[in-house]
Amino acid sequence: MFVALSSFGQGFQVNFQGQKQQGMGCAGSALNADASSLFFNPGASAFANNSEINLAGTPIFAHVLYTDSVSQTSYRTNNPVGTPFSMYGIYRFKKSLEPLSVGLAMYTPFGSTVQWEPNWIGRFALTRLSLKAIFFQPTLSYRINERLGIGAGFVISNGSVNLQKDIPVQDSLGNYGHAELAGKAIGFGFNAGMLYHVNERFSMGFTYRSKVNMSVKNGIATFTVPTALATSFPNGTFSSQLPLPSVLTLGLSFKSNSKWSFVLDINRVNWKVYDTLAFDYALNTSTLSDTKSARNYESIFAFRGGAAYSATKKWTFRLGSGFGFTPVQSGYVTPETPDANRLYGTCGFSFMANEHFSIDAALYATRMQRTDKNIETQLNGTFTSIAFAPGFSLNYKW
């Protein structure tokens, strides 16, 4: 049950780690945009000319409408606003250590809350899911020469999950039972990359973010059932795990003149690692046994691109788009991840107040639809998902 809402990223991936990149379709692995390069490409951070701090947030307004194929009845989510954030810092050494930079990144690539309306038809599959995952990434970057930079960071992921669903047993008043699973998780990985300036106009970036296996140990399972069934659904602990996929990226950037620049990122996301969702309960009964549910995700490609126009020394405007194939195969769509092939649009701007301080803003919007019948739950209908995400960041250099 360690899963996440997918209204704004392929599978349950959130792609809001930099406002400049978000304005250009969430692409920027071949750019040294600002300190957010610690996430997009640690090798690009080697080209930072100054020490820098970047703080950003992107509130997400995401909602899902489900229409049952048989009854044609519709149900909605009542999701709270998602709050992904990022904090980046780069320190640029001087004199003999000048090619070296150190950085610290903290960001939220996974996490949100999905809350279905009461008594919806899929309540035995899911009623509420809240996931939080914060990545900490200390990073070293080194500029080998004026064209080539490399970098790598060690990732520590700290997270929590709370999942709830109804149980198909009723008390004397007709109220269904309820299950709540809550726990904390931790995982480890790395983020590495290189940036190569082919010439003054054209650059290439190559990055690899490793798989992070999030493990839940000693999570708390709480069951609310009629007294007569309490021994069949004992409260206790559980363990589970979620493999967050590795991401391989080729990034390209081209500056056509002093005003216009263009970027393209091609991602290969190894979602194939998420094939089974399993729960191991410390206390088992004839009614409550360990479970394994097939997910059978597929690895996918995603394409992100955009452009930036430097109107003046102070103002820059951006526009972008992206497309990603869904990793969720037919027969495996769930209310926790009602994913589909996704096309989205973005725009944004930057304002340079002075040589030290600047602000960035970006906007992301998408709509997707998927009709499917789940093999395990037999939930058969159409999910329509809409997401709208305005972002804002502050940058300071010295």
Condensed summary:
The protein has 398 residues and is mostly beta strands.
Element layout with pairings:
Blueprint lengths: L18 H5 L13 H4 L11 E6 L3 E8 L5 E3 L8 E8 L7 E16 L12 E16 L4 E23 L5 E22 L4 E8 L2 E13 L11 E9 L2 E9 L4 E10 L6 E6 L9 E4 L5 E11 L4 E10 L17 E11 L4 E17 L6 E18 L1
Antiparallel strand pairs: 1-4, 1-20, 2-3, 2-20, 4-5, 5-6, 6-7, 7-8, 8-9, 8-10, 9-12, 10-11, 11-14, 12-13, 13-16, 14-15, 16-17, 17-18, 18-19, 19-20
Could you describe the 3D structure shown?
It contains two helices and 20 strands. With 398 residues, the chain is mainly β. It has one domain: Porin. The chain has a 14-stranded antiparallel barrel with strand order 1-4-5-6-7-8-9-12-13-16-17-18-19-20. β4 (85-92) and β5 (100-115) form a beta hairpin. The protein is elongated and about 75 Å long.
Strand order of the largest sheet: 1-4-5-6-7-8-9-12-13-16-17-18-19-20
Largest sheet: 14 strands, antiparallel, barrel
Instruction: Give the count of helical stretches.
Output: 2
CATH domain fold name:
Porin
Alpha carbon gyration radius: 23 Å
State mean pLDDT (0 to 100 scale).
92
CATH architecture: Beta Barrel
- Catalogue the unreliable spans: 1-9
Proportion of β residues?
Answer: over 45%
